[in-house]
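Dear colleagues,

As part of the handover before I leave the project, I'm documenting each prediction I ran so the next person doesn't have to rerun anything. This entry is a single chain, and its sequence is reproduced below.
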Amino acid sequence: MLRLRLVWIALATLTTFAHAGTCDFSAVGTRTQQLLTSASLTDAGIVIGTARGVLYKQYFGSYDDATIIPVASATKLLSGVRIMQLVDQGRIDLNTPVSTYLPEFTGTKGTMTMREMFSHTAGYGDDEDSLVLAADTTLADDVAYIAAHVDQPYPPPGSYFAYGGISMQVGGQVAQVQSGQDWQAGWIAHVGTPLGITSIDWQGLKPTQNYRISGSAQSSLPDYARVLAMLAGGGVGNGYRILSSNAIATMNHDQTNGATLAYAPPTANGSTDYGIGTWIESDISVSADAPTISSIGKFGFTPWVDFGYGYFGVLMVYQPTQTTPVIGQRTHAALEDISTIVRAQLDASCPLQQ
């Protein structure tokens, strides 16, 4: 992996911190407190930053930099990064049938592609089958079971958008086979360690080797922010090239090819705009060429990257006892409001281009 130690990075960092002193993000904290009050929560964290540094960070209640929580579906973005890294390396092709990598997938199942598996258009949907994703097995065995026993409710691949995790589970096994590495170990070695990350792994639901590719990661606030800073920085983070610009353009542009909506969570508001592991926030994007992406978890963890304004945000919330749609809808509304606040500040007092 190419090590980049360029003088302009250091200069840009100094510039960003100089601008941070002229910004007033207090309204971000106020909006976060409103979210906590509405959800009867006391603990949270919020960070706003760019590839060049943190513009604003605040914790509420007992949370601090050392707090690690399950991020649920915010895992999908993390997994999408690893998949696109392997695409960059030529180990995976987004349009190759899965049967090429995993011959146990035959018939219609065998025709689904990584692009479809990571954009919810592979023909699978709900991932709550009690025999799938068991913690006491391995990812390889789980995917072998999927190949042999789990039918696609929305065939053929590419026809329907159905949000879920089974197809990403299959994609994770493809990554293991093509990289020759365990999923978690590969992510840590090639994404986490270069970015200086120590808290992210796939043990957020319970100890397991059957990593839930779509939803079992855990993270601290600073570590997840490091991933988003890399995306906002065009694929470079902590001086390392993690992804190419082409990989990021794939992640942050719709990959569903007009698939018919079969199921989307309430936070999607009927949208099927989805990249590789990321929602495309079309309603708040500056333009199609400079989108905002997100990956909201069902417990409330809400990351996003605004490519139009060049900043990222992470709202760290954990409410596992709440019904899924409620906390997700509340955090999505907070994302929209915070986005408006941040953009106004960047327009008025600390423009990133200076």
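Confidence is low (pLDDT under 50) at residues 1-20. Residues 324-348 form the longest helix (25 residues).

All the best with the project,
I.
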